[in-house]
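Would you be willing to look carefully at the protein I have copied below?

:::
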Amino acid sequence: MSKIIKQLSVFVENKKGELSDITTLLASSNVSIKSINLSDASDFGILRLIVSDNDKAKAILNEAGFSSRFTDVFAVEVSDHIGSFNSVIKALAKENINIEYTYTLSNAQIGAFIFKVSDRELTHAIKTLESDGINLLSEV
């Protein structure tokens, strides 16, 4: 089972109502948001989404005029104790794998983080974490 998760990245204007427009489109089309992260610059931002139906979400957003693309990421389960997140970071650092960004995954049952590394380091990152006994999620 693949540990690679498809993240939908959407280019958004930094203006009132833009996020609401996107979430309304997804909700009205029965697409569930599993995790969300919004990074902004002065006029534009990148909305990163893990959703229940990638292809449907991308088609809906593209039809509405939003520019979007898929990015490969992975999700790591972290337990609720001091140092759990740090063990993931240290395992990647030990192998000189650069983390481009990370954010939390919304899940009431477990603690988890989404990680983005370069495409060429993705497989190596996953193998490194698995060999260190860190649980990666195959679906979210």
About this structure: The mean pLDDT is 90.
